[in-house]
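Is this the right way to post structure tokens for a design question? Let me know if I should format differently. Anyway, here goes:
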């Protein structure tokens, strides 16, 4: 079967043209599947002269109907979407744009200053076509305004030229070496993710799905595509706000959503039973970090099941999930593997661990990435045979349920965002007066974890404000250390590797 992810929207519009497809909350615009597909085809016809099969097209936009229609349009054309984390600073975005070879950039007007800075750098990226999404009057001379090029276009369907093993998107994740890696997914790997999600999770046609997570995350993008594949109505928030989320649950009769633990915590605090009606909710899915059992139980007392999910960008989302029949009985577990997915816990020699024996979690399925863009060495390290090695530690109990324990890698998960210490360390080492540095995560009531920098001075006058000021503008806000601690020496083993565990023991909290 030839599968094109953009064509799924065409098919759904044919089968259920009048079914609600999308409510863009911030814009106040609703689309049924016919309208969403027609608008997507207008975008196709607007950009088709400049986007050919295999061309990379970057999206620097907050959640919006323009993001959704651009994504499906690029997919129909056979282009390759490069979703950009809008929290990144220009230097970080420049690297991704250049590394991916993107030639077109859609951007929201709130990122005008960043885009103007990128444009001023000339040939340091390959962007030839800049498309401004927002107020027409604020469109710079080097860009074209989205509506002015899309509105006049016909709604005719394009000829589908890409399918199956052709690239669909490259999604960049922070790298343990400090440089982001582009995770490659094809139409086939994305379709496999949709299939295993659909058969494993409790979705029903006509469900109303709240999507508050940024679409540059696989945890938001894959569910956004699932809504089309399954015939759900996607209620899309521009950005997460806990009070607004409950308002939407009440007014839009939300049935399900995916929320990272920090979002769940914020919503629990803002819930008002006198104002909010949660009776429509069947379940909330939560992942990106282990969900505290106390939080699961608190939601259980509210009558809402929390289904814990485990997945990665490299798996296109799915790995493990808890299902309604065991969600509360196995609170704290991330469940068993998705239906068309295999998961093992293995020792360093690759042999499978016994029950309750700690090991690395490895995953197999047709939804595993094809590799890292331009990084064959990193690909070979991550994918061995048919198995993706996650770098996450866990155990399997006697019933086959997986419990996440810790990470082999030193990644910090802050508010659902992946933060790699090496990237922050590379920046701080450039600060005058710093002799050595190590970055670790400490518990945060608000974000789950937050990074702190442990610094060795070479200038005794160096203080924490100087270090933090040096980082400002060089790192995205969610990567910024929340504190600096000074030590005489960074503990290392015989081979020079930083002993992060020792530092976590020395600095267990802020």
């Amino acid at each position: 079967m030839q599968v094109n992810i953009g064509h799924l929207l065409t098919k759904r519009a044919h089968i259920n043209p009048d079914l609600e497809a999308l409510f863009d909350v911030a814009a106040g615009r609703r689309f049924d599947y016919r309208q969403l597909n027609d608008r997507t085809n207008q975008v196709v016809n607007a950009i088709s002269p400049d986007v050919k099969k295999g061309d990379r097209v970057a999206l620097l936009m907050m959640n919006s109907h323009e993001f959704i229609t651009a994504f499906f349009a690029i997919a129909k054309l056979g282009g390759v979407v490069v979703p950009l984390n809008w929290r990144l600073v220009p230097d970080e975005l420049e690297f991704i744009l250049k590394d991916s070879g993107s030639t077109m950039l859609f951007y929201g007007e709130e990122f005008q200053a960043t885009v103007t800075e990128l444009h001023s750098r000339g040939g340091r990226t390959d962007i030839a076509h800049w498309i401004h999404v927002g107020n027409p009057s604020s469109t710079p001379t080097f860009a074209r305004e989205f509506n002015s090029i899309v509105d006049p276009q016909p709604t005719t369907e394009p000829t589908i030229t890409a399918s199956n093993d052709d690239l669909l998107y490259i999604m960049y994740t922070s790298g343990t070496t400090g440089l982001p890696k582009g995770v490659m997914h094809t139409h086939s790997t994305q379709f496999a993710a949709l299939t295993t999600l659909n058969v494993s999770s409790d979705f029903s046609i006509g469900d109303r799905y709240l999507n508050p997570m940024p679409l540059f995350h696989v945890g938001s993008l894959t569910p956004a595509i699932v809504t089309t594949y399954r015939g759900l109505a996607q209620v899309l928030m521009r950005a997460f706000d806990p009070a607004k989320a409950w308002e939407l649950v009440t007014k839009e009769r939300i049935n399900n959503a995916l929320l990272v633990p920090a979002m769940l915590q914020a919503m629990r605090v803002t819930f008002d039973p006198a104002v909010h009606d949660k009776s429509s909710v069947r379940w909330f899915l939560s992942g990106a970090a282990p969900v505290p059992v106390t939080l699961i139980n608190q939601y259980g007392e509210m009558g809402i099941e929390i289904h814990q999910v485990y997945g990665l960008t490299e798996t296109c989302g799915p790995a493990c999930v808890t299902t309604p029949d065991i969600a509360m009985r196995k609170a704290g577990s991330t469940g068993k593997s998705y239906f068309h997915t295999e998961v093992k816990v293995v020792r360093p020699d690759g042999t499978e661990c016994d029950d309750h024996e700690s090991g690395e979690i490895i995953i197999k399925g047709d939804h595993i990435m094809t590799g890292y863009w331009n990084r064959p060495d990193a690909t070979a390290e991550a994918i061995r045979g048919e198995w993706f090695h996650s770098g996450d530690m866990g155990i399997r109990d006697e019933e086959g349920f997986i419990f996440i324990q810790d990470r082999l890698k030193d990644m910090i998960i802050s508010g659902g965002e992946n933060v790699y210490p090496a990237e922050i360390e590379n920046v701080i080492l450039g600060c005058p007066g710093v002799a050595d540095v190590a970055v670790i995560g400490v518990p945060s009531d608000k974000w789950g974890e937050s990074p702190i920098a442990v610094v060795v001075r070479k200038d005794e006058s160096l203080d924490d404000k100087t270090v933090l000021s040096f980082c400002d503008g060089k790192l995205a806000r969610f990567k910024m250390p929340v504190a600096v601690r000074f030590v005489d020496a960074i503990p290392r083993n015989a081979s020079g590797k930083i002993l992060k565990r020792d530092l976590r023991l020395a600095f267990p909290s802020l």
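Format looks fine. Someone answered above. Worth noting: The CA atoms of residues 17 and 34 lie 5 Å apart. The mean pLDDT is 93.
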